[in-house]
Task: inverse folding
């Protein structure tokens, strides 16, 4: 556990933008020529393995109890921000991800043809936050304690909260 503290409270910053909404464009999708990112016409499960997404965690497979397989939501607009640094001996990081989820062109077209409501109209919003901090254990060299809390909230998935408390010892 090398002392990597800087004199700045913030020494790590990250921003990522994800946009898979357009694909081949709205018009192409409704003429039957649209892409269906991460789904596949031969491999019915698409880019999934045991019902879990094998690519971006922002895209959503069909739920475990569903009779369908593959990706239910491959049209996403997302922002991801990370910030980290040190305040004294405390090392911290915070990650925030916000997405608007539009489903798939194909499923939207199917819903319109059947005259039923489409789950992703209007788009579903989702926010995920992780806050974690770690500090050296004062009386034991090379031992550190870490705490973290995460929350997922929104319209896409069930709201969840997770907590972590851990000790790490570095052997030489």
Result:
């Amino acid at each position: 556990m090398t002392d990597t503290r800087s004199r700045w409270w913030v020494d790590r910053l990250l921003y990522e933008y994800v946009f898979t909404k357009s694909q081949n464009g709205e018009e192409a999708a409704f003429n039957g020529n649209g892409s269906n990112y991460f789904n596949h016409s031969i491999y019915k499960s698409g880019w999934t393995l045991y019902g879990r997404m094998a690519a971006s965690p922002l895209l959503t497979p069909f739920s475990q109890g569903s009779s369908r397989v593959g990706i239910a939501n491959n049209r996403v607009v997302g922002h991801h921000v990370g910030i980290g640094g040190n305040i004294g001996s405390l090392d911290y990081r915070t990650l925030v991800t916000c997405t608007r989820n539009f489903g798939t062109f194909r499923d939207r077209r199917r819903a319109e043809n059947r005259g039923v409501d489409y789950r992703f109209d209007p788009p579903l919003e989702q926010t995920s936050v992780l806050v974690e901090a770690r500090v050296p254990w004062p009386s034991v060299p090379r031992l550190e304690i870490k705490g973290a809390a995460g929350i997922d909230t929104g319209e896409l998935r069930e709201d969840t909260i997770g907590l972590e408390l851990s000790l790490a010892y570095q052997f030489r």
